[in-house]
Amino acid sequence: MESETNVLGGELSACSMGPTTGFMRDGYCYPLQRDPGRHEICAVMTDDFLQYSKAQGNDLVTPRPELDFPGLTPGDHWCVCVPRWIEAHEAGHAPPVVLDATSEDVLDDVSMETLREYAHDSGE
């Protein structure tokens, strides 16, 4: 991965190595031309979001070994698609966002003010 910038203007941090996330499954949420879903927001999974996403036809809970997908549980960090996060936000189900692991390209679609409202405190 080449150097990428996060929404805070710093170097993009890894979102998750366990489970390994990102369109390229390298742990990072960054833009790629071949990623039409735009997996650029690093989010902390909540039961609410996982159930919402499943109801929208994107089951992130059920393991899919053939796709090297372990299934997600609340607390997992995962690169979510920008349109899905916006949709979840508008429906009142958006998960918290890890700002230092979220691509600056997201700012084309989501305001920094909105992202800060959902900022996850990484000092767990």
From TrEMBL:
Gene3D superfamilies listed in its UniProt record: Protein of unknown function DUF2237 (3.30.56.110)
Alphabetical list of Pfam families matching this protein: DUF2237
InterPro entries xrefs: DUF2237 (IPR018714)
Name of the featured protein: DUF2237 domain-containing protein
Organism: Haloarcula saliterrae
